Amino acid sequence: MDKDKQIICPVCGTAIPSDAKICPHCKETLWSDEVPEEFGGGSATETSDGTPPPMLGEIYNRDFRPDPDMEPEAETERLLKIRGWLFLFVLMMWLSIVRVIVSMLTESLPTPFLLSNIAKVGLMIYALVCISRVGSNVVFLCKSLLLITLVETTCMMFGSIQLFKYYSPDVIFFVVKIVVSILWLGYFNSSAQVERLFPTEERSHSTVDVVIVAITAILALVASYTILSELQHVLI
Description:
Elements: E1 6-8, E2 15-17, H1 56-59, H2 73-80, H3 84-106, H4 111-132, H5 138-164, H6 169-190, H7 192-197, H8 207-235
């Protein structure tokens, strides 16, 4: 082979010397003295017509050069991750985090409620981080958060009804919150976007996820029990 000539590496597309056995750019092995067994085996240097042997990249048909007119698949997928109803859910979680933090800073909350709010904020932030990474535990975390909110809100609604004996504005707020939580649970069970981003067969959760959810749920139940106990004392 003429050393002064250049060829194009079939893997990275770089111009390289025609006698180079390894591409100096991508380090791919281009020439070999032996043809792979799946392609018949034998010597790659024995050619009857005097032409150079095939490059390994040509043998394997390995042309990985990207098409400049096509957007990379990973970039396209990244842009499609959070949109529509899922984007609205993420926005609502951020608003909930801000609301809970403001209430903790401006109101004098009993210790059970303070601990419960801290745990819920931590769970929401953890869920948001997992959503941004398209983690396999996202659906588990979001459903758990919605169930905790549903149970806690239901307890507070019945407590408010016992205290006021009629549907106050607080009760209406609790009812709306319960309905919204149920609707979001249905969304995570039936949404095509959720299934596309978090396929059912790929969903999983770790022991750490279970511990975080369990702590948040226990603190929420303790807070709910506290308010119901206080209401019973007031009514008595």
